[in-house]
Amino acid sequence: MTRRVLAILAIAGLLTGSPALAADGAKTFQFQCKTCHAAKSSPMGPSLAGVAGRKIASLGDFKYSAGLTAKAGATWTDANLDAYLTAPAKFAPGTKMPSGVAAPADRAAVVAYLRGLK
Ligand code: HEC
């Protein structure tokens, strides 16, 4: 029950861009993403600044896998971010990113955080 309420809150927050939700996402990002995704691209991962709304695999300063490059041309919408973070290798077979965010509520929070990441 609590989990369902949390998931509903997370989705509501995702739609409204809730600052509290993005703050939760910032924590998850800190623990689960920042080792590979810094403010600037590195060999570990591309920069995620401005990733929401950006074309997939479109940064010139990162060498993407053939798997993610196959998706280039599409846009990082909330739905695509959610799908990639649900199961990276399912969304883009051959991607170099090993894992995403298992829990739907945490994932929604991370996506909300990414939307504000400039
Ligand atoms: C172990 C390192 C690692 C971790 C941890 C990691 N990523 Fe990634 N991420 C990558 C790599 C490498 C790529 C490029 C993938 C490719 O080229 O196939 C990537 C790509 C991405 C992209 C696509 C960027 C673009 O320019 O198209 C997004 C979005 C993303 N990661 C989000 C996240 C989020 C959110 C987290 C935390 C929940 C996370 N990643 C955790 C390594 C990582």
Explain the layout of strands and helices.
Blueprint: H1 2-16, H2 19-32, H3 66-69, H4 78-86, H5 88-91, H6 104-115
The structure holds heme C.
Organism: Phenylobacterium glaciei
InterPro entries: Cyt_c-like_dom, Cyt_c-like_dom_sf, Cyt_c_1A/1B
Keywords: Electron transport, Heme, Iron, Metal-binding, Signal, Transport
Describe the structure.
It is a single chain. This protein has 118 residues and is mainly alpha-helical. The protein has one domain (2-115): Cytochrome c-like domain (Cytochrome Bc1 Complex, Chain D, domain 2), CATH 1.10.760.10. The chain is 49% helix and 0% strand. The chain is built from six helices and no strands. It has helices at residues 2-16, 19-32, 66-69, 78-86, 88-91, 104-115. The protein is globular. The mean pLDDT is 91. The protein binds heme C. Residues 32-33, 35-37, 44-46, 48, 51, 56-57, 59, 64-65, 67-68, 76, 81, 84-85, 95-98, 100-101, 110 line the site of heme C.
Summarize the structure.
The protein is mostly helical and 118 residues long. Helices cover 49% and strands 0% of the residues. The N and C termini lie far apart (35 Å).
